[in-house]
Write a sequence for this structure.
């Protein structure tokens, strides 16, 4: 790293969208010859900041300078021309064209309008040699792995005399060996003096490659740190936004007796469930009446675990036993047959049918389970709906109102009721309390406790550790798409220990052995 | 840091995969020709090949335009109707006594104008090419009958001379002017696709339109251009057809768009876009022509056998494309 002047500065950047303050008063700077990681949870404002920088969005306030000169790009093309190139998570190249053509298309060397193919190939070879890549430049790009395609995208980006290279989650679909290749190239470019802005969800990668870290949270700047001076645990704290000593003050809720629950045959026992690119193989047992918490940062693979258990994604391998009998969870229909219910994290896109009424939304899952040829009698519908509207305190208490007119919390309750009507034996709740007010939150938490007392098993996914601790008998911890630990929720477990597990992931503990 | 040169592991083996369909078409053509030569003595006469070109010159030109469109992942159903409309307009104007040169200019402007309009609708309103060009097809066919319900003969001197001119070798083999025009079109098209930015953008858009946009390529302009090119090729095809038949008929070239699409696909161009060559299209047209010739030589087979064989071949070639996974997706 050098202590010369920054090649790029962003000062006092603010950006609002209708109803959302995406960025407020964010500062960011980038020095030549450094890898600078931009960190934050989903929704922290990383993407918005990059889009503001590359001119996809205008800024509401704030200034950007490149080499000390104020700049304002109108779009990625103009930014690229000025030396600020972006490589996106998905490789935006054409796999049907050759490697060389992908690097040069749109700016091929020509003579009288005719592309000079020999020159294109020669220059592509020279450029790739600079990156220590020995590829057949006339081969179609699609014949190479995703990692190589990613590097060809970088080659295309740096050819335009790039001084700033933005890599937006370039590693999310690469395996460990491919990440190593990418990092080798990043180090080399850094040593040549290119400033690299690196966005990733993987903490290990940040500590491996980044010189400096800027943390964003909820659209605001938390701070800029040297990687060597910021321990991994502090980074997690800064991303989540809670100091450990604050978390330690959580009131003790009745810890629940795990040993008693875990006698007998588990309701669901999966072993070596996993899916390449989504989540590493894991094993998990859930007993009747047990609440299993799933903790981890956003993007750590929590939802992926839930989708595998519900059959929404198909596992690559492994076994599942239900009530001790070998079985399978390959489609949602099978999972529903086995009594699994799934309240999705994304209630607007995947759960609620906004134009249908509360009643219609509630009976959807039950009707699906019965088959469409056996309609539920209206009187039975009304009974059920009335019962759950009362039990869950849904407002307005009118079952014929379109669901879109309800608040987020009440929509969530309708979605819960939909699954409760089917009387599931295992209910998967993915972030059931996100974005709803505190009252509804408490009611949903109370409901989870009641359900588990009544013998229902619950897999409870939440980013809020207090909530997970309060409700769960057992906490499974996710990190970088791996289930790194399963911790019994006894006196020794607190948010501090869960956070340490998320941050380090090294000590693997088994709760039930 | 280490400086050992990295040889990247490629995930799939590489043969000239892209060329496989074209090579398959070439092999097929040679086999069919071999069958013809072995079965019928007169088949080996060079004029048989020349006649295939003479009979299908207009089809070849239209298929070249279609190749541009299909390479971007689009489709143009209007070509048959535009061919007919061009011939109709030419015949009607000539009948009214307009000079041949002026008629040529007007006839050659109609097709590209319609193509430009359809391209703009497809691009700016983001409507499926299938439905836009279907509308263009009905419109152009309707215009044919609007001009005249019956066939209009062409007696113009220029037209008849173009129709009757024979360019031959001393042994009496000959081709028509239309064949030469078709070859010029083929050469220009092949050059455009291989060596110009327009051509390379066509392949890029067919490969991945979102990527092409993010790479800064003029996606909209290119997309509009291919429908205009297809319109121009249809117009040239229409003129060649009127040279060939010396008339304009409202119901000529009905369903021709489907023959054209079949020829392009049999020639190895992938329907989803991004892979294919004009040379393949030439081979595709020749395959169709040789099938017809074989059936004519046989004499006992109904001409519908042409359609049956084309249907079978089309299936086979689409399966071939799928099996070799030319899209690398």
């Amino acid at each position: 790293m050098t202590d010369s002047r920054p090649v790029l500065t962003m000062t006092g950047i603010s950006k609002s969208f209708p109803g959302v303050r995406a960025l407020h008063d964010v500062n960011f700077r980038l020095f030549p010859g450094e890898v600078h990681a931009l960190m934050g949870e989903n929704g922290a404002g990383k993407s918005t900041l990059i889009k503001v920088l590359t001119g996809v969005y205008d800024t509401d306030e704030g200034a950007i300078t490149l080499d000390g000169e104020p700049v304002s790009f109108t779009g990625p093309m103009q930014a690229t021309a000025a030396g600020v190139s972006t490589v996106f998570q998905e490789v935006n190249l054409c796999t049907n064209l050759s490697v060389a053509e992908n690097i040069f298309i749109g700016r091929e060397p020509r003579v009288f309008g005719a592309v000079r193919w020999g020159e294109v190939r020669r220059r592509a070879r020279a450029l790739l040699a600079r990156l220590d890549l020995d590829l057949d430049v006339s081969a179609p790009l699609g014949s190479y792995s995703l990692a190589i395609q990613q590097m060809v995208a970088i080659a295309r980006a740096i050819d335009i005399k790039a001084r700033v290279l933005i890599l937006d989650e370039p590693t999310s679909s690469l395996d460990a060996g491919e990440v190593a290749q990418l990092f080798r190239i990043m180090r080399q470019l850094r040593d040549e003096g290119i400033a690299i802005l690196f966005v990733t969800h993987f903490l290990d990668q940040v500590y491996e490659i980044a010189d400096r870290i800027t943390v964003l949270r909820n659209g605001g700047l938390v701070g800029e740190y040297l990687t060597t001076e910021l321990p991994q645990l502090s980074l997690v704290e800064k991303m989540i936004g809670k100091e450990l000593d604050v978390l330690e003050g959580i009131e003790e809720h009745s810890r629940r007796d795990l040993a008693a629950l875990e006698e007998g045959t588990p309701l669901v026992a999966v072993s070596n469930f996993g899916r390449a690119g989504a989540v590493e193989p894991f094993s998990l047992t859930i007993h009747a009446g047990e609440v299993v918490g799933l903790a981890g940062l956003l993007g750590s693979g929590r939802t992926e675990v839930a989708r595998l258990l519900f059959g929404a994604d198909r596992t690559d391998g492994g076994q599942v036993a239900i009530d001790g009998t070998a079985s399978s969870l390959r489609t949602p229909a099978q999972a529903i047959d086995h009594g699994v219910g799934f309240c999705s994290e994304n209630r607007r896109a995947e759960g609620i049918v906004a134009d249908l009424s509360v009643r219609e939304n509630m009976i959807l899952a039950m009707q699906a389970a019965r088959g469409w040829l056996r309609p539920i009698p209206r009187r039975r519908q009304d009974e059920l709906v009335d019962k759950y509207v009362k039990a869950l305190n849904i407002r307005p208490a009118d079952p014929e109102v379109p669901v879109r007119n309800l608040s987020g919390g009440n929509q969530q309750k309708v979605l819960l009721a939909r699954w409760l009507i089917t009387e599931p034996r295992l209910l998967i709740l993915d972030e059931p309390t996100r974005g709803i007010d505190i009252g509804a939150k408490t009611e949903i938490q109370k409901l989870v406790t009641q359900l588990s007392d009544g013998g229902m098993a619950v897999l409870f996914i939440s980013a809020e550790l207090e909530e997970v601790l309060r409700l769960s008998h057992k906490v499974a911890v996710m990190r970088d798409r791996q289930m790194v630990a399963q911790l019994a929720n006894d006196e020794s477990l607190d948010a501090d220990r869960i956070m340490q597990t998320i941050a380090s992931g090294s000590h693997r503990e088994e709760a039930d052995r | 840091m280490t400086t050992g040169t990295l040889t990247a592991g490629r995930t799939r083996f590489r043969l000239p995969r892209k060329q496989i369909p074209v090579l398959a078409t070439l092999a097929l053509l040679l086999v069919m020709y071999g069958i013809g030569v072995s079965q019928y003595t007169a088949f080996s006469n060079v004029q048989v090949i020349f006649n295939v070109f003479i009979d299908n010159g207009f089809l070849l030109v239209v298929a070249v335009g279609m190749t541009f469109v299909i390479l971007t992942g689009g489709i143009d159903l209007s070509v048959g109707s535009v061919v007919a409309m061009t011939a109709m307009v030419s015949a009607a104007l000539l009948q009214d006594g307009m000079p041949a040169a002026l008629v040529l200019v007007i006839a050659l402007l109609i097709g590209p104008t319609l193509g430009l309009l359809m391209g703009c609708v497809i691009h700016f309103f983001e409507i499926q090419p299938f439905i836009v060009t279907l509308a263009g097809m009905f419109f152009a066919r309707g215009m044919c009958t609007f001009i005249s319900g019956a066939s209009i003969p062409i007696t113009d001197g220029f037209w008849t001379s173009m129709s009757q001119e024979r360019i031959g070798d001393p042994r009496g083999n000959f081709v028509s002017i239309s064949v030469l025009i078709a070859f010029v079109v083929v050469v220009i098209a092949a050059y455009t696709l291989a060596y110009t930015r327009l051509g390379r953008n066509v392949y890029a858009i067919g490969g991945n339109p979102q990527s092409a946009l993010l790479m800064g390529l003029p996606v909209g302009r290119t997309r509009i251009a291919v429908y205009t090119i297809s319109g121009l090729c249809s117009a040239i095809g229409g003129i060649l057809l009127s040279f060939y038949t010396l008339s304009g008929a409202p119901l000529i070239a009905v369903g021709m768009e489907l023959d054209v699409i079949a020829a392009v696909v049999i020639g190895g161009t992938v329907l989803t876009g991004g892979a294919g060559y004009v040379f393949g299209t030439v081979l595709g047209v020749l395959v169709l022509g040789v099938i017809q010739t074989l059936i004519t030589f046989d004499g006992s087979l109904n001409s519908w056998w042409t359609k049956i064989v084309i249907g079978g071949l089309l299936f086979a070639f689409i399966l071939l494309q799928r099996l070799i996974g030319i899209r690398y997706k």
